[in-house]
Write a structure and sequence with these properties.
It is a single chain. This protein has seven helices and no strands. The chain has about 160 residues and is mainly alpha-helical. It has one domain (about 10-155). The longest helix has about 40 residues, at about 45-80. It starts with 7 loop residues before the first helix and ends in a 9-residue tail after the last helix. The model is unreliable at about 40-45 (pLDDT under 50).
């Protein structure tokens, strides 16, 4: 199945960045509280500082997100360049399965590197199961899932029905 005409590495980079932006916006919307109760119900005096703080928070989270996701995006670009024919043949399967691979990689990384009292007394399998069950690691599934959907949308040629 032919895919979009532009390079697969560019499509992966764009999809990875969009996934990062969407996850940062999701963090700010659902996980972080609004400062000092300012928000949609605040008067005009509270909107300016709220927007400044929200913008500053977004920029800080974007920089932190790029530090975390940057190496994963580079690995995805390298894998995309190496496995291009296979990815283009099974585009939908790769777009749906790759987020789970990234999530498991992130969970494995956290299970190996996190130091606390529980992790020091338990084996790798126990630490991995706790990390997979943690709510915070779902962000490492959400961003790659958005990236996979964006990659699929960028890769399917216009006017052709999706085929797997």
């Amino acid at each position: 199945m032919p895919t979009a005409s532009w390079l697969i590495t560019a499509r992966i980079a764009v999809a990875g960045f969009i996934g990062l932006v969407v996850s940062v916006l999701a963090i700010e919307t659902f996980w972080l509280p609004s400062p000092n109760g300012a928000g949609m119900g605040a008067g005009m005096d509270g909107i300016g500082p709220f927007l400044q703080e929200a913008f500053a928070g977004t920029m800080i989270l974007m920089a932190f997100g790029l530090l975390l996701a940057g190496p994963l995006i580079l690995i995805a670009i390298l894998a995309g360049a190496i496995l291009r024919p296979l990815i283009e043949r099974h585009l939908l399967a790769w777009s749906l399965a790759s987020p789970f691979a990234v999530w498991l990689f992130a969970c494995f990384f956290f299970a190996l590197t996190t130091q606390n009292a529980y992790f020091e007394t338990h084996g790798l399998i126990d630490r991995l199961s706790v990390t997979i069950g943690a709510r915070d690691t779902l962000l490492f599934l959400f961003a790659p899932f958005v990236s996979g959907l964006v990659f699929y949308a960028l890769s399917v040629p216009r006017g052709c029905p999706p085929v797997n």
